From TrEMBL:
Organism: Segatella bryantii (Prevotella bryantii)
Name of the protein described by the UniProt record: Exo-alpha-sialidase
Coiled-coil spans in chain: none
SUPFAM superfamilies: Oligoxyloglucan reducing end-specific cellobiohydrolase (SSF110296)
Annotated ranges, domain DUF6242: 10-117, 123-418
Superkingdom assignment: Bacteria
Length: 424
């Protein structure tokens, strides 16, 4: 009920912002915040900005502009009492905490709104690492691969003799539970595991097995695959050694994809597969394949790409080989072990000691960029034995052999809350 009146608009103006200068000194600058939209939910009577004001903004002395329906009288409830103060467009008001606004009609009836002026509490491009408890069981593994599935991080590895499987909640990372190898999978099976949409897939001598918990396995199909790659939005991908294979029935049957270059240029080890929606093409994914190829002492990683279009009228594009370009400065080097995955709007690669980030689908890989991730000071590098995975909350996990270190981190912006902006 609005009692013939309601808050119809809310905005802020120029606010003070605390910043740190290049010399490291604290300073206060004025920042125009009038371009930040505030949304009004007339059902829940909430007012808020979905795009938070910049880090360092002082919302305790805000000059705001508020309008009401039918010229209703606007008042602001005191933070610590029931005292009401008439709103004035020239007053500096404290919106550093949620505040109650009221709008009264001519009969004295009112509607109350809760106002949240959201301000970033951290810089968008800052990256925060959290070190979990070192784990000696993980440290003892001689090889490992991690996947995220249904809110859990699974590490598949070998102790040199048998397959080992460990699991932790993606909100934990300190305690790990061992999962029995009930399917008697061989030690090398850890290299052939992937996860998608609540299901873990593992390849054992051409046979694909599936599980939801890494303990109870069901045979899916017998294939000629030698490697599982991953999923696009509608297709599963794998390799059979000299070809890229695809399946549109969740791994039951497979067909060979077209290549624009000889198959001898396909990667043979440390293969990572990435798929993301291509916003520039309707109903399509951009696919990237990254890995190493043992040939002619190559020093640059192998990259292939494909535009996968799913509309009925679309042509079937081949996989394209991206040959190393001599004049390109930022190349992805070969590594003893290399893992790449989607992160932000690009691809991040990790070799156990250094990160590389590509924003052009794998063509260039600068170390320094807007998405730079710095290695923690106490990090123990290992270029031969580690696991690298992203969880469902956009956290990156580094799980290191030998030291047993477990690290979790993300850019702060990826953890920011999203708000409703459409009201019907």
């Amino acid at each position: 009920m609005y009692y013939d009146t309601a808050i119809t608009s809310f905005s802020v103006g120029t606010l003070k912002r605390h910043v740190t200068t290049a010399s490291g000194e604290d300073s206060i600058v004025k920042t125009d915040c009038s371009g930040y939209n505030f949304y009004i939910d007339q059902l829940t009577h909430e007012i808020y900005n979905t795009d938070s004001l910049p880090y360092g903004i002082d919302a305790s002395m805000a000059v705001v502009s508020i309008s009401s329906k039918n010229s209703g009288t606007i008042v602001l409830k005191n933070i610590n009492s029931d005292t009401l103060t008439y709103y004035s467009s020239t007053d500096s008001l404290d919106f550093s905490v949620p505040r109650e606004l009221r709008v009264y009609n001519a009969n004295g009836d009112y509607a109350a709104y809760t106002v949240n002026v959201n301000v970033h509490q951290e810089e968008a491009d800052s990256f925060m690492w959290s070190r979990k408890a070192d784990n000696q069981v993980l440290a003892s593994l001689e090889g490992m691969k991690a996947v995220c599935n249904a809110g859990k991080i699974y590490v598949f590895g070998t102790d040199g003799n048998a397959l080992k499987i460990y699991m932790t909640s993606m909100t934990d990372g300190n305690s790990w539970q061992e999962i029995s190898n009930s399917a008697n999978l061989p030690a090398e099976a850890y290299n052939h595991v992937m996860a998608h949409d609540g299901t873990i897939y593992i390849l054992n001598q051409g046979t694909i097995l599936t599980s939801t918990d890494a303990q109870n396995w069901t045979e899916l199909a017998k294939t000629n695959l030698t490697q599982l790659l991953g999923y696009s939005s509608s297709t599963m991908y794998g390799m059979n050694g000299n070809a890229i294979m695809s399946s549109t029935d969740n791994g039951v049957s497979w067909s060979e994809d077209l290549l624009d270059t000889d198959a001898s240029y396909l990667p043979t080890s440390n293969i990572s597969f990435m798929a993301r929606t291509d916003e520039s093409v309707d109903n399509a994914d951009r696919l990237v394949l990254v890995g190493n190829r043992i040939a002619n002492n190559e020093t640059t990683a192998v990259v292939w790409g494909k535009l996968a279009e799913y509309s009925s009228s679309a042509d079937s594009d081949p996989w394209m080989y991206y040959p190393p370009v001599k004049d390109i400065t930022y190349k992805l080097p070969t590594a003893t072990k290399l893992v790449a995955l989607n992160y932000y709007n690009g691809i991040i690669a990790f070799d156990g000691k250094q990160f590389y980030y590509s924003e052009d689908n794998g063509i260039t890989w600068p170390i320094e960029s807007d998405r730079t991730i710095y290695i923690p000071d106490t990090f123990s590098a290992n270029t031969t034995n580690f696991a690298f995975v992203k969880d469902d909350n956009n956290y990156l996990w580094m799980i290191m052999g030998a030291s047993g270190q477990v690290w979790r981190g993300r850019h702060c912006e990826l953890g920011w809350k999203t708000y409703q902006t459409s009201f019907k």
